[in-house]
Amino acid sequence: MIEMVQYNYIRFLYFNKHKSQRAIAKEMGIHRVTVKRAIKNPEQKYHMNVERDKPVNGDFEKRIKHLLEYNSNQPKNQKLTKRRIYELICEEGYKGSYSSFTYQARKIEEKLGI
Length: 114
What we know:
single chain, 61% helix
């Protein structure tokens, strides 16, 4: 994927150095259409990664934390699996996916040092 710096460099070569699209493509080792697209769209939008709210996990975060703390104090043969913990909170009304639950559980375990 071409980054913003490369798009700016393509425009610099085309407009300031008056190089052809083919010459730019050959010099940078990219496709002609990519060069054409960079010249055609003078302003590229910056994409900032902003952490979104987690409405599904937010309500159950305390419950997940409580179950993980409880689980860490249990003997090995009595510990609940993550699948079983997921099923328990689903019975309480959790509507998220298993993968989002495991991601949340992993983050909580890292914070607690479990």
